[in-house]
Amino acid sequence: MTVEERFAIAIGIMAVVAFGCRAGGLVVGSRLGESPKLRRLFNVLPACAMGAVLGPSLVAMTVVQCVALVVSALVFLASRRFLLALASGTAVLLSERWIIAILA
Amino acid sequence: MSCAQSARLGLRRATSLAISSGLFGILYGAACASLGISPALAALSCVLVFSGAVQFAVLGMLADPFSAPVIAVSSLLICNRLFLMGVSMADHLRGRSWAARLLSMPVLTDGAWAATVAEKAPVDRFVFFVCAGLWILALWVSGTLLGALLAGRLEPEVISALRFSGVLLLALLLLLVVRNTPMGHAPWMASALTAIAASQVLPLPLGFLAGVAAGSVIIWFGIRRAD
């Protein structure tokens, strides 16, 4: 089996699983009823999921990546401009070789 | 707000998120090309799956021994975030037919969810969400095609920077949601810290689940205290 044939099978599996998760969540969410407590819980849980994905990535950061993250967050908090914040962080990442030279 | 106005606002609000996804798509396209996958197939995977995390993860599972069940289980573990977003989106999409709601689900991603949840204007949330999601999808696919065509010309520093910009994107999405909703920082921080601790002793997907469980406990106590 070629890589493309394997990838085609993988696409089919991923597509079914991804749609199933999205649609399953929608069905469950639609049947939750009017409980404000449950509603609030499920409104915040996706952000917790993002935090849980981010956490282990942050532990493995290099110094430059850490600087990039801090710069991005500060730019976003100061300007509320998402793309500017991401561009600032990416610029720090791209200038890694110069930053390392300066720090050395 | 009319449908047209909601659509325009959805496109505008999602533009920065879409460009970010496009940049990440370049990396995905380049990764696909390095494995010998054609640009068309790479783009097709973006349209049908539209979940960067699982798409990247599966690229590492195409070598021998190829196992469809392993791919299915891994996809399920990575995609469970989409389930939580689906639950959260249900409230925003009420009032539409089941067919419309289900047909909109393929464009549900971190970016479209965050943009919709964070939006405070009185928009038609269904139209807003679908337009935001389609715009992010369009640039995700375009970025992938570009990356597949540029593969080999990208310097290692650029690839390394783009790879970490996925983490930056997720962190900024989190800040966007926290700033625009009354959730506060405690739940996601509890999730992140628990996931860090749990991933030291457990496989990463289980560490993730432990993190989400810890976050849900914090939210629940917060709700009870507020009552």
From N to C, what is the helix and strand string of chain B?
HHHHHHHHHH
Structural class assignment of chain B: mainly alpha
Arithmetic mean pLDDT of chain A: 85
Largest sheet entry of chain B: none
Describe this structure in words.
Chain B: One of its GO terms (biological process) is L-valine transmembrane transport. Chain B: InterPro entries: Brnchd-chn_aa_trnsp_permease. Chain B: This is AzlC family ABC transporter permease. Chain B: Pfam families: AzlC. Chain B: It is a multi-pass membrane protein. Chain A: It holds the Pfam family AzlD. The complex is a heterodimer of chains A (104) and B (227). Chain A contains five helices and no strands. With 104 residues, chain A is mostly helical. The longest helix of chain A is centred in the first third of the chain and has 28 residues. The radius of gyration of chain A is 20 Å and the shape is flat. Helix content of chain A is 87%, strand content 0%. The mean pLDDT of chain A is 85. Chain A has two domains: 58 residues; 44 residues. By secondary structure, chain B is mainly alpha-helical. Chain B folds into two domains: 179 residues, no CATH class; 46 residues. Helix content of chain B is 80%, strand content 0%. In chain B, helix 1 runs parallel beside helix 7. Chain B is globular and about 55 Å long. The relative contact order of chain B is 0.15. The mean pLDDT of chain B is 86. At the A-B interface, helix 1, helix 2, helix 3 and helix 4 of A face helix 1, helix 2, helix 3, helix 4 and helix 6 of B.
Q: What keyword list fits this structure?
A:
heterodimer; A: 104 residues; mainly alpha; 2 domains; 5 helices; B: 2 domains
Element layout with pairings:
The complex is a heterodimer of chains A (104) and B (227).
Chain A: H1 3-30, H2 36-59, H3 63-79, H4 82-94, H5 96-103
Helix pairs in contact in A: 3-4
Chain B: H1 3-34, H2 39-49, H3 52-59, H4 68-92, H5 98-104, H6 110-118, H7 125-150, H8 156-180, H9 186-201, H10 204-226
Helix pairs in contact in B: 1-3, 1-6, 1-7, 1-8, 2-7, 3-4, 4-6, 6-7, 6-8, 9-10
